[in-house]
Amino acid sequence: MRWLHWTLLLLLTLFWQTIPGSAAERVLLQAAGQSQASIEGGATLSTSAAVTGLRATAQRNGTVKVIVGLKVPFAPASKLGTAEAQRQGREIAAASTALRARFAAAITRAPSSFRSYSSIPFVALEVTPAELDKLSTDPDVISITENMVLRANLAQSAALIRAPQAWADGYTGKDQTIAIIDSGVDKNHPFLGGRIVSEACYTNRQCPGGSSSSTSSGSGMPCVGSTECDHGTHVAGIAAGYSSNAFSGIAPDATLISINVFTSSGGRTGTNAADVLAALERVYQLRGSYSISAVNMSLGWSVRFSTTCDDALPSMTAAINQLKAAGIAAIISSGNDGSSSSISFPACISSAVSVGSVSDSNWGTCGGAGIASSPTAIDKVACYSNAYEELSLLAPGSPILSSIPGGAYATKHGTSMAAPHVAGAFAVLRQKAPGASVDDILTTLRDTGQSVTDYRNAAITTPRIDVMEALEKIDTSDGRLAINLTINGKGTVTFSPAGSKSSCTASCVSTYAPGTSVTLTATPGASMSFAGWGGACAGQATCTITMTAAKSVFAAFFPISSGPPTTLSISKTGGGAGSISVLADGQETSCSGSCARSYGKNTKVILTANAAYGAALTTWTGACRGKKSTCIVRLSSAKSVGANFETLPIYSLSYAKAGAASGTVQISSSGQTLTCGDSCTNPFPAGARITLTAVPATGKIFGGWSGICGGRKTQCSFTLRSTGSVSAVFN
Q1: Hey, what domains does the chain have and what are their CATH numbers?
Q2: Each residue of 387-401: pLDDT tens digit?
Q3: What is the pTM assigned to this prediction?
Q4: Nearest to 646 by CA among 607, 620, 614, 609
Q5: Is 642 within 8 Å of 571 (Cβ atoms)?
Q6: For an engineered disulfide with 717, which of 192, 278, 451, 691 has Cβ 3.0 to 4.6 Å away?
C-alpha cells in the first residue's frame, strides 16, 4: 500500500477549484462603435472613425501614439479560477509577444513609447501612418485608441466630514494602504512620517537614471521642473497625512504607495494613458503585499462625457475593473471645467468612484476662466467642479491645506483635493470592515452622506461623505476569506493568527479578513513524520499565506517506519510559456515555474510538459531526457527535472479570394476560428495545425484551392512550417 492515499484529496481539489471558475465569463474588450459580433466575425478596424482620426494625426505629425487591444478574451483574474486565470495570463503574453514581433521596427524606433502589460490584453506603441494601417487590418487587434494625454485636476476639511470622530473611535486607516498615482510624493515630508511603503515611476525617460520605468527606492519622489510637481505630495497629505500638533489627513495611520506618472516639460506636467495603465498594473501586482483599499487618481483628460464611458478606452476600463475585483477602489476626480452635465475621463468609467467638490468654508468668490463665478458656502458645490447625474460622491475641495515638497504646506482648490478625502475614507471604513467590497463601501458612503443639490442643475443631488455616519452603518459581517485545509495522516496544523479555527487535525475551514497574513505550522502525531504541503503551500517548512482570495491547502503526514520522504525538484526554463503536470499516488498537480514535491521512496512520478500555444518543449534535463512531452521518474533517491520551453517562430498565412462569385473562408487553429472575406493575412506559430474551410455564398459554388492547399474539397488542413499563401475560387 502506498504511504499516501491522494485520491480523495484530488477529488476535493477539483471540487474546490471549480467553485470560483464560473464566476466570470471572459469576453473580448471592444472599443466604442464596434460590436461584439463584428469582432468575432473578423471585421477589421481600418474604416472606423477612431482609426480615421488617428490616421489624420499620424499623417500630420509623422507618427501617433496608440493603445492596441489584443484579441484575447478577458475577465478580472480575481473572478476566475486559478487554472483559467493562468491560462488568460499565458494568452495575453503570447498575443503580446506575437504583436511585438510583427511591429519590431516601430518599437525599435520609439522604445520609450512601448509598454506591454501582463494582466490586461493591451500594448502601447508609437506608429507611422503605414504601421497604423497595418495595425487596423491585423486580425489579432480588436481596438486602437489614442494614448491620450492626462493632466492633474487643479483648480479645515476633515472636520466637515467628521473624520476626527472616527479617529476618536480608533478608526484611522491602520493596516490599510492607499496608492497615489500622481506627480510623485515627497517621502521625507514630516506630514507623511516616512510611511511610503512602495515606490514606482512610469514616465517619458524622467524616472531614475533617465529610464521610463523604475520601482527602485526614490522612484516615487516628485517630478521636477514645474510647480505642478507639488500636486502628488498635496494629494497624499489629504489622504493620509499626520501631525501630532496640527491637522491630519483623513486616514492618518494608513501607509502609502507613491507612483509618479507625470513628465515635466516647459513648466507643465502631464502623463498619458499608457503610463497610468502601467501604474495601475503595478498596484494590482502589489495587492498580495499590502492591504490596498484604494488608488487615488486626481487627473483627467480634457474631453468630458455626459454618460458612462467604458468603451472610450477599453484598456483603462479593464485595469480599473481588475482592481475592483481585487477589492481596490479607483477614486478619480471629476475635473474642473465647471460643467454640470459632464465629467472628465477616466472618472466617467462606471466601475470608478467619481468625486466632485464642495466648499469646506465660505472662502469668497469661486470662479475662473470660462467658469461662471459664484459666492461660496459650506457644502455648496464648487463652481469649477464637473458633475452629472451619475457622479458617485462629493467631498471638500476648497480651500484645502496640505503638504507640498520640501517640508512646507500650501492651500489648493480643485476636485484633485476632493478625491483623496474619499480615498482616505475608504481606508478608514476598510479598517473596520476588512471584508467589505468596493461596492459595499461606496453604497455605505452614498447612503449615509449629506445630500447636496447642485445649484447649477437641480436634477443632480449627490451625497457628500460623512465618515463617522458611514462607520456606524458599515456591515462588518461579510467578506471573510477561507483557508480550506485537508490533512492526510495523523498530525496537527495550527493557524497564526487564529481565525475561526486555531488548529486542525482533519479537514477544516478557518476564515480571515482579506489581507491577513496567516502562518500555518504542521506538527506530526506520535510515530509520524511530516511529508509536506500541497495546494497554496509547498515544501516542508512553516507556510505563510496572504489572504487575497480563498485558499486550499493540504498537509500530509506518514509513519516514520516508511522512511523519510524523497523530494523531486522541478524547474521550467526558456522563454516560452508552458507548465508541467505532475502525477503521482493518484494526485495530479501543476508546476508553472520552480517547485518541489515530496513522495515516498520509489514512487513512480509521471511528468507531462504542456507547452502553451506558440511555444514548444525543446528538451528535458536532469532525471528526464529527450523531447517527448511525457517522462517517467522513479524516486529511488532525491532527483531534479527541468523542462525547457521556447517560443516558436511566427509565420504569416495570406489568403486571397479568386473567381467572380462571393464566398468566405474560415481559418481554424488551436480551437479558434476566424472568418476571412476577400483577403486577409494572419500570423501563426511554426508548426501550427491549420484548417481552411471554404463557404460559398448562397447560389454559388466552390471551384478549388491554389497555393498551400490544392484540390476541390471545401476543407483543407496542413501544418504551417513557413510563410505561405492560399487562394479559393468561387464561381
Answers
A1: 7-13+479-647 (2.60.40.10), 26-147 (no CATH), 150-473 (3.40.50.200), 650-730 (2.60.40)
A2: 999 999 999 999 898
A3: 0.64
A4: 614
A5: yes
A6: 691
